[in-house]
Design brief:
The complex is a heterodimer of chains A (about 130) and B (about 400).
Chain A (H helix, E strand, L loop, with lengths): L2 E4 L8 E7 L2 E5 L4 H12 L2 E2 L2 E7 L5 E5 L4 E2 L3 H9 L2 E3 L7 E3 L9 E3 L17
Parallel strand pairs in A: 5-8
Antiparallel strand pairs in A: 1-2, 2-3, 4-7, 5-6, 6-10, 9-10
Chain B lengths: L1 E11 L3 H12 L4 E4 L15 E3 L8 E2 H13 L3 E4 L3 E6 L4 E6 L2 E12 L3 E3 L15 E3 H9 L8 E5 L3 H12 L3 E6 L9 H8 L6 E2 L2 E7 L6 E6 L12 E4 L2 E4 L3 E3 L30 E3 L10 H19 L8 E6 L3 E5 L2 E3 L4 E7 L3 E8 L4 E8 L5 E5 L7 H4 L2 E5 L1
Parallel strand pairs in B: 1-2, 1-8, 2-5, 8-19, 10-17, 11-12, 11-17, 12-13, 20-27
Antiparallel strand pairs in B: 3-4, 6-7, 7-8, 9-18, 14-15, 15-16, 20-22, 21-23, 23-26, 24-25, 24-27
Helix pairs in contact in B: 1-2, 1-6, 3-4, 4-5
Classes of the chains: A alpha+beta (about 130), B alpha/beta (about 400).
Chain lengths: ~130, ~400
C-alpha cells in the first residue's frame, strides 16, 4: 500500500506520502501528528459522510435531504447512491427521522435533515377516468 | 384592504442572518416581523444539504437544512411573525415604513427599527463577457443546486464547471453523485478558489480534474449548449494563443462568486466599494440611524456561522433602538491598509465589541494582521482569500481609538 495524500485537517494542506516496508509504514511530508493519523486512515479505509436527498410522496416538497450521521466507506458510496435513488418515503418527515435503518451494512442509518409536511392530501384525490 | 401594522423590528429576508436577527430581537422582548419571499424561511441553507456548517455557532457539525431548522424551532418559541411569500413593493428607509404584498393581502408596516438581511446573488453569466452563443444549459452553481436539491430536476448529462469556489466544488460532487458526468472544473487563477478539503473530497474523491489558469473562451449551441471552447490564460487572464480546445458538454455551471444584494437600498444607504455591501458599524447599523444590515449583503462571508452571529448582534441593537434605548457610543471610521480586500465593519462603535472580518487579496504563506492604532497584532500562517481571518477585540480595549479618530487595519 503506497500513495500520496493531501491532508485536509487544516488549511496548510500538507502533501503526505505513505510507503509500506514490511509491516512498517513510513509517513513523510506531514508537519504535525494529526497529518500522520489522517494519512493512515485515508490509505487504509477512507470514509466520508454522505449527504443526498430522497423522494417524498404526498409532501409539500418533492425531496427531503438526508445524511449518514457518521462517515461511511468511501468505496461503497457509488453503489449506495444507486440504492438511494430508488427509495422514497411518505410525508410527514421530521428532522432526525430514520429514513433507512442500515444503509451500508455496518448499521449506519440514513437520517432526514429537513422537515417535510403533508400536502393536505391533494395527491390522494382520484381523477375521473 | 390594506392592513396597517406596527412592529418593533422589521426584518427583510429570512435567511441565516435574518432568522438569527429575528430570534435575538424577540429574545429582547420586542415584537418582530420577518418578511420572506419564499414559501418557507431558511434561505440558501435549505439547498446546502452538505455538512460542515455550525461548528462555531452551534459547536456541532450540521447540514444546511439542520442549521436552518434549529433557528426556525427557536423562532417558533418566540414572538416572531413570519410573512412568507411576501414582496416589499416600496420602502421609506428613513421613516421605516414598508409596503408589502403577500398572499394574505397588502400591508403597510411601520417599524421601530429596520433590519435588511437580503443576502447575496450569484454573479450572472452576462458579467463574465464570454463570447459565443447564449443557449440554455449555462447556469450559476446555486441555480443548479436548487434544481437538484430542492426541485428534483437534474439539469445536465455532461457538465463542466467554471470557477473553483466552494459552491462549484460542492456541485461537482453533487452532480456526480446524481449520475451526471462532470468533465472538469476550470479556474482562471493559478490557485484553487475553494477550501483544500473540498478539492480533496469533491474532486479528487471522484477523479474530477481541476485545470488551473484555464477559462472558457467560447460557447456554442443552438437552443441547448453543445460545446465550450477552453483556453489557458496568462497572469493577466489573457488567453494564450494556441492553447484552445473544444469540449462537448450540455451544461456549463458557473461558480464565479457572489455579489451582496444591495441595489434596492443603495440610494439610501452607503455601500462599501470594496465589500460591495452595506457599510455598517460593529453594531450592524448602516449609514442611516435605526436601519441595520447583517449577513452577505454587508460582505460575502465564508461561514454561515459568522452570518448568523452578525444577524444576532443586529437583532439585539435593532430591538434596543426600537425601544428608544441608545446603545451607540462614540464612533471612528475603519481604514483598509494593504493586502486586504474584504473588511468588516467600516465603523467602530465604542459601545460594542469589535468583530473584524478580513479577506486577503492573495494567498500568503505567513503574515500578521496589524490593528495600527490599537497596537494589536495577530500572526497567521497559510492565509488564503477563501478563508476569512476573524479578530475580536473587547470593547474595553477600544478607547485608544478616540485619540486617533480612526482605526487602520493592514496585513504585513
Amino acid at each position: 500500500m503506497e500513495g500520496h495524500i493531501t491532508c485536509v485537517i487544516c488549511p496548510v494542506g500538507c502533501k503526505v506520502s505513505v510507503r509500506k516496508e514490511g509491516v512498517q509504514y513510513t509517513i513523510e511530508g506531514n508537519r504535525c501528528a494529526r497529518g500522520e493519523e489522517y494519512a493512515r486512515n485515508e490509505l487504509m479505509m477512507p470514509k466520508r459522510i454522505l449527504t443526498t436527498s430522497i423522494g417524498v410522496s404526498n409532501g409539500t416538497l418533492p425531496l427531503v435531504s438526508v445524511k449518514t450521521p457518521r462517515p461511511i466507506d468511501r468505496a461503497r458510496i457509488k453503489e449506495i447512491m444507486k440504492e438511494i435513488k430508488n427509495l422514497s418515503i411518505a410525508a410527514p418527515v421530521a428532522v432526525g427521522d430514520t429514513v433507512v435503518e442500515d444503509i451500508d451494512g455496518e448499521g449506519t442509518p440514513l437520517l432526514a435533515t429537513r422537515a417535510v409536511s403533508c400536502n393536505g392530501g391533494r395527491e390522494k384525490t382520484t381523477l375521473p377516468t | 384592504m390594506l392592513k396597517r401594522e406596527k412592529t418593533d423590528v422589521l426584518v427583510i429576508g429570512g435567511g441565516a442572518a435574518g432568522m438569527a436577527c429575528a430570534l435575538s430581537a424577540a429574545k429582547e422582548g420586542v415584537y418582530v416581523t420577518l418578511l420572506e419571499r419564499e414559501s418557507s424561511v431558511g434561505g440558501v441553507l435549505n439547498q446546502c444539504i452538505h455538512n460542515g456548517f455550525g461548528l462555531q455557532f452551534y459547536h456541532q457539525e450540521l447540514t444546511g437544512p439542520e442549521f436552518a431548522s434549529r433557528l426556525i424551532d427557536d423562532m417558533n418559541m418566540e414572538n416572531v411573525k413570519i410573512i412568507s411569500q411576501s414582496y416589499v413593493r416600496d420602502i421609506d428607509v428613513r421613516k421605516r415604513v414598508a409596503q408589502v404584498l403577500s398572499p394574505d393581502g397588502a400591508y403597510e408596516i411601520q417599524a421601530g427599527a429596520l433590519v435588511i438581511s437580503t443576502g447575496a446573488r450569484e454573479r450572472p453569466f452576462g458579467s463574465l463577457l464570454i463570447p459565443g452563443d447564449r443557449p440554455a444549459g449555462v447556469m450559476p452553481a446555486g441555480v443548479a443546486q436548487r434544481y437538484v436539491n430542492l426541485e428534483n430536476r437534474i439539469p445536465a448529462r455532461k457538465a463542466m464547471i467554471l470557477g473553483s469556489g466552494d459552491i462549484g466544488l460542492i456541485m461537482a460532487r453533487r452532480l456526480t453523485l446524481e449520475g451526471v458526468e462532470v468533465v472538469s472544473v476550470l479556474e482562471r487563477m493559478s490557485y484553487p478558489g475553494g477550501l483544500t478539503r473540498n478539492i480533496v473530497q469533491c474532486l479528487e474523491d471522484f477523479d474530477i480534474p481541476l485545470h488551473l489558469s484555464t477559462t472558457v473562451t467560447g460557447i456554442s449551441g443552438d437552443g441547448r449548449l453543445r460545446s465550450v471552447e477552453i483556453s489557458k490564460v496568462d497572469e493577466n487572464f489573457t488567453p494564450v494563443p494556441g492553447t484552445s480546445r473544444t469540449i462537448d458538454v450540455d451544461a456549463l455551471i458557473l461558480s464565479a462568486g457572489l455579489l451582496p444584494q444591495v441595489e434596492d437600498f443603495s440610494d439610501d444607504l452607503e455601500v462599501d466599494p470594496m465589500n460591495r455591501g452595506f457599510l455598517v458599524s460593529n453594531t450592524c447599523e448602516s449609514s442611516t440611524e435605526g436601519v441595520f444590515a447583517a449577513g452577505n449583503n454587508v460582505a460575502i462571508f465564508d461561514l454561515v456561522d459568522y452570518v448568523a452571529a452578525e444577524g444576532w448582534i443586529a437583532g439585539r441593537h435593532a430591538a434596543l433602538f426600537s425601544r428608544g434605548v441608545n446603545t451607540s457610543g462614540d464612533r471612528v471610521p475603519v481604514f483598509r491598509g494593504k493586502n486586504i480586500s474584504v473588511l468588516v465593519p467600516g465603523i467602530v462603535d465604542m459601545e460594542e465589541h469589535l468583530r473584524l472580518y478580513i479577506r486577503l487579496r492573495k494567498p500568503m504563506e505567513k503574515g500578521v494582521v496589524v490593528l495600527k492604532e490599537l497596537k494589536i497584532e495577530k500572526k497567521f500562517s497559510y492565509g488564503v482569500p477563501s478563508e476569512m481571518i476573524q479578530l475580536v477585540v473587547n470593547r474595553d480595549k477600544l478607547q485608544p481609538l478616540m485619540n486617533y479618530g480612526k482605526l487602520t487595519v493592514e496585513v504585513q
